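Hey L., structure's done. Input below.
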Amino acid sequence: MNSATDTAARMKELARLLEYHSRRYYVLDDPEISDYEYDMLFRELQELEREHPGLADPNSPTKRVGGEAVRGFAEVRHTVPLGSLSDVFDYDEVRAFIERTKAFDANCEYTVECKIDGLSCALRYENGAFVRGATRGNGLVGEDVTENLRTIRSIPLTIDTDEPVIEVRGEVYMSKKSFDRLNERREAEGEQLFANPRNAAAGTLRQLDPKVCASRGLDIFIFNYQTGTKAFERHDESLEWLASVGFVTIPYLKTVRTADEVIAQIEEIGRMRPDLPFGIDGVVIKVNSLALRTTIGENTSTPKWAVAYKFPPEEKQTKLTDIVIQVGRTGVLTPNAVLEPVKLAGTTVSRATLHNLDFIRERGIMIGDTVVVRKAGDIIPEVVSVVSEKRDGSERRFDMPERCPSCGEPVIADSDDDTSNGSTAYRCTNAECPAQLMRNLVHFASKDAMDIDGLGPSILALLHGEGLVNGIEDIYSLKAEQLVPLERMGEKSAANIIAAIEKSKSAGLARLIYALGIRQVGAKAAQVLAAEFKDIEALFKADAETLCAINDVGEITARYIVSYFSHPQTRKLIDSLKAAGVVTTYESEVKDNLLAGLTFVLTGTLPTMKRDEASALIESHGGKVSGSVSKKTSYVVAGEDAGSKLTKAQTLGIPVIGEDELIAMLGENR
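Output:
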């Protein structure tokens, strides 16, 4: 480039091209250039921004991959409140709504649109540029999630308008395909599955690291023009304008006049629902005239000019042809129903979890039964009940196997199992069971454990298939030259994995304890054990009585820990890890002792911090965090939806503080 002016012009042109082609691809589904050509434009802009950071635009398309992680979310007071809607559940209630609003104007029109199953956000644009996005929160105050929203490719970073300021409201959601991919990854990594796309979208949008948000494929539909200088007469007119300037607006909207037409459109959307690529949990009916809305008015917390019709859960009957067993990471045997395929909430269902034997017995489920199935949250297939009148005598009782279907070793019944929710769990006793191996490897390398970047489920499966990794200790004997010849691997990828493995050696004792996958020992308990024993060798010597004396370690957990460290294969594994240079001792991360001698209990959802983040903050200042309230508790830190712990604290007269007061105690700025 000849000058800074030329460079700036090229960067602006690249940004324009990338936004244009991104919209063609992600919004219109009509790309004009190949992925490679797009990637080359993207890389050119990245390089120019790296060389000329002073010329980089904060709304550059390169920001969609996610910037630096933030410490927390600032509060945003909404310019226009983000209210909720009253729900109706049958057509009589729909007709009553139409009758009430027709009383104000017999010629009243209505828009009927999909109720997207996501979470509401407000987007603010100044001089055509996206400057801020916030969650709904309580309707008046939300959280600033701008950096995460920038990663959503259907949100335009710039729009074609001369309005100085506009705000719009939309529904952030996760498509069914993105949800399935995310849960497949989480299952492979031994993480808890999201119950439905809405929970997944909400959890993703509140990730402190925008790169996590960028990786999960969120999307958005805009459904309201909140504020600006343009004057519209009708709701549908405002949406047409929003679409014309670059927004993806709510789909399948129809304007109608009568109750019969409203109901007909509800039924039409209901018929489309199973095949939609996104989840909906109902239909929104709104008065179309904006002036008439003002006349009709508002209730205390909901408008009188709109309602949400909620669909009942779809249930169908099918035949349960078999019950098969899946062996989990910790050896738990989970029964799964094999079903005659049935179309349910948009997908063909042929399997459903039966949780455990108690679940099967309580519902009287037998192999060969006709059963009623539905999708919990419209996503997770579940067996609701048995249609006993359809039995013909050929049905068979199911019993848990006495030997593991994966390795043939004995199975034990364990009523104290941490995954059983009070029911008896059945577990394979073989620590080297093949079905458990891959899940153990994935857990060991996962982000919250040893955090070996690049060593995900697919790569570990490849390494295991090639005979390179048959146990945790094999990870630390890998060499780059062994990896380079493998499929989807090159010199750079191999070098990165080896570097990540080397880095993991210094992850510390707490992460190592968690990575070992001891039953009932999560990340928090692992931190407590590391701080208490300081060296993994001390855990080999610890008895149940010693462990029970530690805060947050109960009798059952203590028994699991003692059992784990009593096995010869554990001794062999730890010796191998030590020989490889893995750190097995504890280094305190305490900054100071501002909270020394104080014990805190966390309850509810804090405004900007997750519980593990708040726990780490307290512990870094010398305080202790307990899971239960007692007379020894110094403070209870309470957030939204605080439960029984808050009640108990109030009964015992224990001081209750919020997140802000905790931070103030530490003199920290967040």
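The chain has five domains: 4-65, 86-310, 315-414, 434-580, 599-666. Residues 4-26 form the longest helix (23 residues).

-- N.
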